[in-house]
Task: structure prediction
Amino acid sequence: MTLNEYDYELFLRLYEQINVFVDNKLGGNANEYLSLPINQKALMRDKLHDHLHLIDDFVKENPSNLPPDYLDIVAGFKHVVTGNFYLVKYLSNYAVFMNDDYAFGVHSLIEPFEYYIPKNYLPSIVTMALLPFKDMIIYDGILASQQIRFGGNIKRRLNQEYNELKAKHGIITQLPIVQKEEETKDEDLLIYYLKNATNRDYYEEEIYQLANKNKDLKAIYHRECGRIAARPHKATIKDFDIKKRHFAVLHDTVVASAKSKKELTQQLETFLTKEQMNWVYYFKV
Result:
């Protein structure tokens, strides 16, 4: 969840150089960044965010004679994402910060985020800047946290928003953001909406729109409905001590059974259309 010592020192060195460069380009006379008080760092950093185009000048002029791979890192700082985020989870590889649009998997610098914001304070509102660094997302070392304790309803809402963003886009672990293919995103989102009864009630209209968007999504809709309906059917069938049979569920109804999957498929082909065959959910007891 944190950078190794080499990467940490590299980031600090590069970030100081670009901040000093931008300050001087804008008429300042800064010759350091890292040793400044946090409020002065924030002011310099804000200048950088307001003039990201100057990063291109730094790369062209290369005042520190940096090697190409280091210049690529600095050039990536143009893709900074700033603002207010909810820190929602600590996972094994990164902490998850969420804004209105995405959930980001972020690595800390030298101290883990939990050092600053204990787990029992999650979710927490923070103001920060996310930066690409190598194949990761990090932050710039300046983090402002609001010590607000949320009630159960807000926690549940934020968790629902997190799960929806994760279903839509996955957890973003690199910048700039590269969108997933729309078809895959729609599939993930539909499966999330159908995941449980709460989601199915809450996203009823969204489910209807997605399920009728194209035939592939309609097939996913029916198979997921079949999977959900199969649970009580399995329990009932087991109560009757029926074993070693395959069953087919169409939406919410068991429509056929057989001793083998091949035999079951052959049965279905006698009364279902080719499209409906793609809607079937199969299970075995």
Remarks:
- The chain has three domains: 1-179, 182-211, 215-284.
- The two ends are 43 Å apart (CA to CA).
- The chain has twelve helices and ten strands.
